[in-house]
Each structure stands twice: as C-alpha cells, then as structure tokens.
Backbone:
C-alpha cells in the first residue's frame, strides 16, 4: 500500500469519531439554544466576537469568563452578547477570566 493510500485509510477510519464529537458539541449547544432561531443581531454579534460553541483551550471557556452568568446545566448568558444564550463550554475572542 502506498503512503498516500495508507494516510487516506487512516483518516477515513477516524471519520466516525470526528463525526461523533461534532454531534456531541452540536447537541450540547442545542440544549441551550437553537442557533438557527437566533435573531440576526445575535448571529452578527457572535460572528464579530468570534464565538464558538466548543472552546479549543480547556482553560478558556465561557463558564470561566467574567461576562458569563450560569443558568441551568451547561447553559448561561453572556453580557457581551446582550444577555444572549451561550454554552458554558464555548468561547469568544473577548474571553476575560473571572477574578479569583
């Protein structure tokens, strides 16, 4: 088997795991809010702040941010998003750690 084909086979075998991880992030955010149902102003604000539902850095996430107010489960609201719903595991470019 040539190296290119071997690489393809390895990547293809990992695809189900990547899809499962993506579904869990989507399910987690869906439990907090429906992204499609957000008003255009909220969508634009999230885009301008670089908000994502899954923080790449485990130390920087909405749940640890000074602008986050928890509600129930992994859900809460963000002052920067004018009180819009967010996932505690999400993050944006304006992350500010809570004071210790």
Residues:
């Amino acid at each position: 088997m040539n190296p290119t084909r071997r690489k393809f086979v390895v990547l293809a075998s990992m695809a189900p795991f990547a899809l499962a991880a993506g579904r869990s992030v989507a399910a987690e955010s869906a439990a907090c809010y429906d992204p499609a149902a957000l008003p255009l102003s909220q969508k634009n604000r999230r885009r301008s702040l670089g908000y994502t539902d899954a923080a790449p850095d485990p130390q920087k996430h909405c749940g640890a941010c000074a602008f986050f107010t928890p509600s129930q489960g992994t859900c809460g609201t963000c002052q920067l998003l004018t009180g819009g719903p967010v996932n505690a595991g999400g993050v944006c470019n304006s992350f500010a750690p809570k004071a210790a």
